[in-house]
Structures
1.
Amino acid sequence: MTNVALSAAAAAKINAITASEPAGAGLRVAVEGGGCSGFQYQIGVAASANSDDLVIERDGARLFVDPVSLPFLLGSEIDWVEELIGAAFKVTNPNAKTSCGCGVSFSV
């Protein structure tokens, strides 16, 4: 798998979050240096895609990944999970060798 996948649950949540945003809005997932394991995910609403972003669409939801973050996310799935301790977007990343307990940071 060379792309980034978006689960049905994540697509539904993105649609709910961006319903009040301007047309073309979506969720941006980026990888930045930092966190307790070396890299961390940054997830937030973006008004639109940048010209060089990979845009993944599912069920009307849009996910944006910048070209610097893409190699770290290849083969990953973005999901929306609801657990007793809370609800959040979860990245299942086959490139991560280790990750922290909260799942926000990882190393490659």
Note: The mean pLDDT is 87.
2.
Amino acid sequence: MKVDVLTGAVIAVPSDRVAAYAADPTHAPEWYANIDSVAWQTPPPVAIGSRIAFTARFLGRRLAYTYEITAYQPGRRLVMRTSEGPFPMETTYAWEPHGVTGDRTRMTLRNRGEPSGFAALAAPVMEAAMRRAQNKDLARLKALLERNT
């Protein structure tokens, strides 16, 4: 069973600022509740081919995985993939100006992959947990950025 979770939020901050902050992996522990640490394996800044190691907690387990940036359009879209962790996964961030004056941002966060083995049996539970976590993370990002406006 495939897992595909798409969530979004409107953030009252211009898209260039939201994208610059969210696309910098060093900020991930500040707005992702489950990410404990981030370590660059290639020199910053983010570019196609960049590799970043993450440690996180999910469903009571500690996870360590490395994402590789596979697509990056600054201010518009970031795609990263990993073949590690509970299952191979692709994460996509997208940002677009929102509202009449463009002073807000519509950010979407999508995680998708195809678990195998035991993870495949737990896919419906994982998908629901991922959706809850993503919504909370986007709410945390929104609060953080709007507070610092």
Note: Helices lie at 15-22, 28-31, 118-121, 123-147.
